[in-house]
Amino acid sequence: MVPAQRRSVLISGASIAGPTLAFWLDRYGFDVTVVERAPTIRTGGYPIDVRGTAIDVVERMGLLPQIRTAHIASRAMTFVDRAGKIIGSVPIYEAIGSDTERDVELPRGTLTTLLHDATRNGDVDYCFNDSIDTLRDDGKGVDIGFAGGRQARYDIVIGADGLHSRTRRLVFGPETPFNHSLGFCFNLFSMPNDKGLSHGGVVHAEPGRTAAIWAVQDSPRVFGFLAFSTDEAPVSASRDAEEQIRRTRAAFAGMGWEVPHLLDAMAQADDLYFDSVSQIRMPHWSTRISHT
Ligand SMILES: Cc1cc2nc3c(=O)[nH]c(=O)nc-3n(C[C@H](O)[C@H](O)[C@H](O)COP(=O)(O)OP(=O)(O)OC[C@H]3O[C@@H](n4cnc5c(N)ncnc54)[C@H](O)[C@@H]3O)c2cc1C
User: Which of 80, 113, 134, 236 could form a disulfide with 145 if both were Cys (CB 3.0 to 4.6 A apart)?
Assistant: First the structure.
């Protein structure tokens, strides 16, 4: 008997959703390719909590021991006034309602690397430095033209390429009607740990603007964080860093504590990550291909 042909799937994006989905689709017999625009797995970002159902998922993937080993065990979040005087301090896990027996907090980059490692030695094929350029769904399959020039056909194409997904744009049209801003945007960047911070963060907040410095354990570098409320259209879709820096400086003008230092560190950072805080809401998340 001729074995049934494995159905082919292309996933766009190799961050958290992409490799996790690749793991499961590979296990369930699909022929999986992941295309990622960056030259390698992107490791930046704040620590991420793996909680609730996500713990069940990583456990079933056999990754729970590695994920537990990477737990960074943050301790306190300390609030200061504009002169840097301590107002109060809360244990992190109490503040976020975490289940301390079960939940794990680990650097985002460690999580993406673990998920990538769990899939790259199997049958999942990773293509870095490339992305979907054109997509044509003829009802029986999807023809993909890659930015690098290659053409290929897949049974299913899935966008795991983030909030500003190009795959979604190619299939469903421009992002604007689907992107519901929650009225904030944030900037995140690394900077030297010149205050000797350890295992947690210091926060200075005023209505509509929050500044923080966060240390992962005793790392020589810390994360700077600047978030502010805004009614302006987010610049995150256009990725215009200069404009984002300009708006952030304007939003934080006159704020005390370490904010001037944070603004300068943000402008000099080579790993500035910024985005709007928004939700994508869509009437449906897929288009159907008929297999008649
Ligand atoms: C470097 C980085 C740092 C982050 N830091 C934080 C943080 O500190 N705090 C926070 O709340 N969230 C952060 N995020 C976002 C957070 O990871 C995601 O919102 C969340 O984890 C959901 O993950 P995701 O896999 O759906 O999407 P994302 O993590 O956004 O990943 C999308 C992936 O798709 C890739 N991609 C994008 N466009 C294309 C394209 N056209 N073709 C191919 N690949 C494409 C991106 O390079 C990325 O690897 C960060 C994301 C990245 C990429």
Answer: 134
